[in-house]
Amino acid sequence: MIANYGYQDGSGEYYITIDTDRCIECEGRWCVGACPQSLFVIEADDYDDEVATIAEGARKKLKEKCAACKPAGGHESLPCIDACRPGAISHSW
Amino acid sequence: MIVAGIDIGSKNIQVVVLEDGTVAARVSVASGFEQEESARKGIEEAAAAAGVTPADIEYIVATGVGRKAVAFTQHQVTEVAADAKGAFALNPAARTVIDVGADEARAIRIDATGKVIDFAVNEKCAAGAGAFVEAMSRALEVSLRRFGEISLESTESIPMNAQCTVFAESEVVSLIHSNTAQKDIAKAVHDAMAGRVSAMARRAGLENEVVIGGGVAHNVGFVRALKDTLGVGDLHVLPEPEYTGAFGAALIAAQKVAEGVPALNPQA
Amino acid sequence: MPEETKEFWRWSEKVWRDESIDWRGSRAITAGIDVGSVSSQAVILADGRLYAYHSTRTGSNSPDSARKALNGAMAGADMSQEDIRYVVGTGYGRVNVPFANRAITEIACHARGANYMVGPSVKTILDMGGQDCKVIRCDEKGKVQNFIMNDKCAAGTGRGMEVIADALGVPIEDIGRRSFEIDEEPPPVSNVCTVFAKSEATGLLKAGWSVNRVLASYCAAMAERVSSLIERMSVEPDFFITGGIAKNEGVVRRIERIIGIEAVRLPADTVLDPQIAGALGAALFAHALLKKEQKASAQA
Ligand code: SF4
Ligand code: SF4
Has domain C122-259 been given CATH number 2.60.40.10? Predict the structure, then answer.
């Protein structure tokens, strides 16, 4: 499943996309430890697969939560994307 | 030499008149529906307050969202440029400038010469600007001024769920129904907004001294909440904070005249 | 036909029961309960077939609303909660359905419910609720493949529409019709944010626009907003719309215009209501989970 967590508001679109099919086979669960804001949690989804999701309380605050990793002057890489070896994570902004 | 800076926001228009480098008048008028007309009125009132006529003003620089909607100014600069100029002149130690107005907020990092290094802006979501606190004070039926003051009396930290002005209004109403003290609600509201503004400031980069301008800097509750969230030593409120942009624009006007840019006042 | 007490577009009270079914004769009675931010629905299935449903307004207390919805669906059937073998809770208050055997997200439930209502041809579902908006892509079994939602911002939700309707003094159920009573389609309201759009709308009135023209302009803005979410997923027909705004043609037809695909409409004589998609999906999950349990215990 392609799961898009986040939102769009007047200021823009802030989505973190997780390709959860890749999580099913993932051995490392690297995302969990990589994010300095602890955004990633592993949970059973509705079809009983153990996959990564974005912590419930953070879903409406991604712009703020990810601010530290995304200085206004630009950034080269993001800890979560670098850590996830199966390449399941992408950001919309 | 008489010059002026005009900051045309969507709600208010601020005008600063400089006479030989010192402030001769500061005037604020409502933007209203006819921005051009209101802007003219602002200039007239400011000229009168400075004891001159609009025709005596050699050069006008406009800033603010409506800067392009007004034809009679000689030059336009972005809010970021105007803010940086104004804040640096008011406090040369400033390195991070935060400006929170009713409809938008921005954070700018400047170097020791006042040059802009980086900036972040929020202009399109009311939850990140003064409009958020205004709406909540209305929901609580407390004046904006009082709303800021009472929040200082609270030591509670109630997290707000809603991140949108519209949904937060309902949340405030349900907090009222559950008999949460007004001061605690007020603090929760200011904390929530401070969180958003501080995330924006972090993107621009925090460096001491951190100064704050814009109309919302008058709100003591917000200033405290922001100071706590930023975790910087101090947060300096600029004098006459809502005029930071207009003052900066006026300084740029003075500079233009000094540089010998032909000053043609179309009003003359 | 279902009985409908028209209270307000967002939470019309509705009860329906299939009198031709004697539930006592069935082996598996299951229920799905969708506790939304403004309305709550309960659906009861008898052996996987739709038996009854009820839609009611969500009160300030989620467990009470869940119970109220279920009681409404059971009312008149001489059924009690003990007769229901498996309950799935969904919706924004899903964790607050204390008597549910399991909670499942509204994303999965909507997909499954829409699949039952429209059939396996449904691939894209748009749910526009009072406080959120979601787009779901699913396979022919109703299993979610891709989803996106927005429950942070009032723009693009029923609440945002309500704020504008209030500001213009127009009853919300008239918006769709009135938004087409114009000479030519105006440009959409330029502010996304509901707070700023409201000032813009009142400004347009002052500038001499008719109320209908402002409504058209706001419906168009809302359609653009929602379409941008849909287009992130790439739409594949059949395209089905659920939720409160599904009844607002002013928005629906403008969305269809933008994405170039017409939404499936249920036949006029249907007993189904797009409003119950979430609860129906939950009840179908309940039925499947119960069967799985029964099978497991039979093997043990
Ligand atoms: S590291 Fe990547 S693939 Fe593994 S669980 Fe996290 S998001 Fe999924
Ligand atoms: S989140 Fe709320 S305040 Fe922000 S843009 Fe959306 S409607 Fe406006």
Answer: no
Neighboring chain C residues of B167 at a CB cutoff of 8 Å: 131, 154, 159
Domains in chain B, CATH or no CATH each: 1-89+242-268 (3.30.420.40), 92-237 (3.30.420.40)
Instruction: Tell me if A46 and C155 make a contact (CB, 8 A cut-off).
Output: no
Per residue in A15-42, pLDDT tens? Answer: 999 999 999 999 999 999 999 999 999 9
Tell me if A39 CB under 6 Å of ligand 1: no
Q: Which ligand is closest in space to the CA of residue C161?
A: 2
Q: What is the pLDDT of residue C12?
A: 58
Residues in Cβ contact with C44 at an 8 Å cutoff, skipping those fewer than 6 apart: C23, C29, C30, C31, C51, C52, C53, C70, C73, C74, C79, C84, C283
The CATH architecture of the domain made up of C14-112+273-299 is: 2-Layer Sandwich (3.30)
Interface with A, mutate which of C110, C144, C227 (most A CBs under 10 A): C144
A79 lines ligand 1 (CB under 6 A): no
> Which residue in chain A is spatially nearest to B123 when comparing CA positions?
A11
Question: Is it true that C14-112+273-299 and C122-259 share their CATH fold?
Answer: yes
pLDDT at site B268: 41
The Cα A72–Cα A64 span in angstroms is 12
Where do the domains of chain C lie? 14-112+273-299, 122-259
Look at residue B263 and tell me whether its pLDDT is greater than 70: no
Q: CB of A89 closer than 6 A to ligand 1?
A: yes
CA of C196 to the centre of ligand 2 (A): 9
Question: pTM here?
Answer: 0.88
- Cβ-contact C32, C53 below 8 angstroms: no
